[in-house]
Amino acid sequence: MEENKEEKTTVSKNFIEMIIDKDLAEGTYDHVQTRFPPEPNGYLHIGHAKSILLNYGLAQEYNGLFNMRFDDTNPTKERSEFVESIKEDIKWLGADWGDRLFFASNYFDQMYEAAVKLIKKGKAYVSDLSAEEMREYRGTLKEPGKEDPSAGRSVEENLELFEAMKDGRYADGEKVLRARIDMASPNMNMRDPVIYRVAHMTHQNTGDKWCIYPMYDFAHPIEDAIEGITHSICTLEFEDHRPLYDWVVRELEYENPPKQIEFAKLYLTNVVTGKRYIKKLVEEHIVDGWDDPRLVSIAALRRRGFTPESIKMFVELCGVSKANSSVDYAMLEYCIREDLKLKRSRVMAVLDPIKVIIDNYPEDQIEYFDVVNNMENEALGSRKVPFARELYIDREDFMEEPPRKYFRMFPGNEVRLMHAYFVKCNSFVKDENGKVTEIHCTYDPESRGGNSPDGRKVKGTIHWVAAPTAVKAEVRLYENIVDEELGVYNEDGSLNLNPNSLRVLCNGRRAFMGNNLYSKGACYTAQRRKEEQSDAPVYLDETKLTEQISVRMRVNGEEGWYPLVSWGNHWYESDRQFEVLLGDTEDIEIHVDSLVTGRHLVESVSLKGMPDRKNYALRLKISTFFSDEK
User: Fold this and answer.
1) Are strands 517-519 and 353-358 parallel, antiparallel or unpaired?
2) Of 111, 408, 428, 499, whose CB count within 10 A is highest?
3) Residue 285 near residue 519, CB atoms below 8 Å
4) Alpha carbons 408 and 471: distance in angstroms, whole number
5) Residue 173: which region, alpha, beta or left (left: phi > 0; alpha: psi -120 to 50)?
6) CA nearest 376: which of 339, 338, 342, 335?
7) Measured between alpha carbons, how far is 105 from 207 in angstroms, rounded to an integer?
8) pLDDT tens, 188-227?
9) Which value, in Å, is the radius of gyration of the alpha carbons in the chain?
């Protein structure tokens, strides 16, 4: 006789969950409280998403609490813009901090009192050493440090000096407060680290109340302890800082002190995540902001179309470990495809159109096909798709002389128009430049819906749109901003940028390709003239550039369009010289627009003064960029 056996599900836990389970079982803590403590000095990126979801997920798993805290102890780089963007990103990811939104700067009074307590215990002293002297006294990994000459000061003197620091009686860098630990410690972080510094700067939250600010390694454990954090989850680079973390909470005698646990960061291959690099890209206008879809900031991923669910899926696939590793960017793209495949309708779009004329189809007829919105999810319903005698297909779906195993449209071949009919290519028309402009076909009326009653098969299926009802659109095609073949960084530390990271297709025609143009930190973007705004793409006749290009400049504080008035000689083979009449000028700030020609794109621009006239010459480097004729 067979016995019914209950199936037991084995739950695999990561090492952090195991630590928490042990702490709860042994009574170290009776609850779980986590936090996410970003510094508001930039936008969050995909690596931060892992930390957010990990900390919030642990709080949810153990029915605990999740705190949101801005670690705003460094006023030199922090801005309220970053505060707001971080809050928006975290809410979008679904992490709910409830009423537990905190700022480290609100604890400055308590941190000051904590520093005073250490001084009174003989555990901290005011130092006069400069930054260079402190490095010298600190020692090396092989040699112990030397005692600070100021370490012998009395408690009373240290209290007086620290108060004078607070009162603004010392310049930046003139005095610091150091913890007294062990100058011979093998851990460099324990060699009397600086815990307070003088910085006469306005803080984005506290204004000018303070001119001394705590160092991160001192402030962080105090913040955790004040808020009742049980498990302080941070990335692996803080592992060597944990002894200092534990020293601070121990010496300050907090009850139920928090426990720091480190996990490996999330590294993506061939992406830019460093804030200083992203800041440089933003400031030099190589990207159009911290949320440019070519970046992997959370705001950029959201703008590009990623969903919170896809980010969560990605983080779960990456897992939690103590070992550093890299994840291919393709996995992130896989997650968004997996998340959207059952959620979104499928539609047809033609990005590089070529006209198809079905010669045996009635000229004025438009019929409609009922098309399922998503073949994998019938709940999304269906839509009616118009079909007409004239259609557009993508240029890449036609070849005059195809290679072997090419099953799309070519002369004499029959293909399926998706959801519609079988059509056979009979002929095509070229323009004077040899470019195919029209394809002539015949259709099989019996194959309506994409299948033929006689059972014949076709190997190629192509998408299309009906010409009379097609909607014009601007499409932006993004690639990695990094040249993946060369890697992220050059030998000098600069970034290897992909010149085709952004392609903008306008009405199915190429209007602009590549990054924003930049030269020596200045940015020049291809755009239309204001008076020429229309739905049509901008194509300029190279022989009439002076009639069609204007330059947008700020002259003497007034912004306006200045037409090019002369076509100059070559500076060298691929360059052209233009002159712009500016009149009497004092303050010139250039913003160059509309510098796209039918087959050329301006790569760089520089301004050259003309000493004998009240003119300026623009040096334009022009290169062949477009493969399509206009």
Assistant:
1) unpaired
2) 111
3) no
4) 24
5) left
6) 342
7) 10
8) 999 999 999 999 998 888 889 999 999 999 999 999 999 9
9) 33
